[in-house]
Amino acid sequence: MRHFGHLAPEVREHLFHRQPCRFSADAPAALLSVALGATLYSPATRPALAHDIVKQARHGVVSMVLCLEDSIDDADVETAEKNLVHHLTALSARGTPAWDADVDLPLLFIRVRAPEQIPDLVRRLGPAVRLLSGFVLPKFTEERGVVFLEALTGAEADCGRRLFAMPVLESPELLHLETRAETLAGIVRTVDKYRDRVLALRLGVTDFCSAYGLRRSPEMTAYDVQIVAGAIGDVVNVLGRADGTGFIVTGPVWEYFRLQERIFKPQLRQSPFSGRAEHLRTALIEHDLDGLLREIELDRANGLLGKTCIHPSHVLPVHALSVVSHEEFSDARDILRPDRDGGGVLRSTYTNKMNEVKPHRAWAERVLRRAEVFGVARENVGFVELLAAGLPG
After folding, report:
1. Which of 41, 164, 184, 379 is within CB 3.0–4.6 Å of 199 for a Cys-Cys bond?
2. pLDDT tens, 63-100?
3. Which residues of the chain fall below pLDDT 50?
4. pLDDT at 272
5. Which pLDDT does position 349 carry in this prediction?
6. What pLDDT is recorded for position 340?
7. Which of 373, 320, 366, 336 is nearest to 19 (CA)?
């Protein structure tokens, strides 16, 4: 699979200075954690689940979570499990006329409610477990997390397939100030012990807001809610460090996908959308995606990569804004030149900023990792062109 692989080769050639790399579910964890991109959640109760997975793969989705937790009613868990096993088993038999056998399936994860579901589902999937990349572990704390991760380790040994964990950091203990430090310390102890199993850490901002009866509007980002922004900052501070001890931390879900009545002005400037792209700006505003674009930019500025998505319309904006610009790539490459190991300061290739070699080295390394999986845009290509190229029709 590859990001933007659903686009025609000539379109990618026009857009990219360096195209996104190809990778498989068996790629190294360091690459897969960056490549998750927009992780699309789907309730496991969907009656056409297998068809939906193939359809989303054809539209550029690279990672999906099949949810048995908050997205379904408590009474539907057993039905959802049966539905999930049925459809993954059917997908495992692809190659028959029922499926597009030439489509690379996304990285697939199951979000469970309880640890015992992990070995049970692995057993019930049988050979179809080959389609599975791992499990999403909800409301993760040290006490809950150890049990989940032990269940995952046992299931991995039983099926003989590498299975990753993606813990969701969303518990009230992590949000409440008086328990945050100890909760974070316990999470660090747990994920460090199982480091080779943990692909990425996901933020459950909806649950954070729930603890205080809050819900942000489509005109506000998670960073406008100060209680949430403080928790995100502390999670990145402790778990997202660039010194080799950190993990990929993914951005929070964007909840909106319908037109809402606006109070504030749109957040997208007109100038990047001049000319033929003005209709794209209008469409993004009408679907409340201007707020999503702003939040994606703030995610990256605050050390997050990738995003939880609950609607297919969110995937393309996340991926378009994950592509490395030609300017970023030029700066990163200059900073990491072998003859710059001694440090120093240099003027950027674009002559508009200072690149300080030692302080900017970790940033440059992250940029090049992102460039490998999302590609580098051509010099005259920005996110508007990337968005426009990926829209249907």
Report:
1. 164
2. 999 999 989 999 999 999 999 999 999 999 875 444 55
3. 96-98, 260-266, 268, 276, 285-286
4. 58
5. 85
6. 79
7. 373
Q: How many angstroms separate the most distant Cα atoms in the chain? A: 62
- Any bridge partners for residue 169, and if so which? 203
Residue 264: predicted pLDDT: 43
Q: What residue spans define the domains of the chain?
A: 22-323, 324-393
Give the global pTM.
0.91
The CATH fold of domain 22-323: TIM Barrel (3.20.20)
Q: CA dihedral in degrees (164, 169, 171, 177; nearest 10)?
A: 150
- Give the list of residues 6+ apart from residue 195 with CB closer than 8 angstroms, or none: none
End-to-end CA distance of the chain: 22
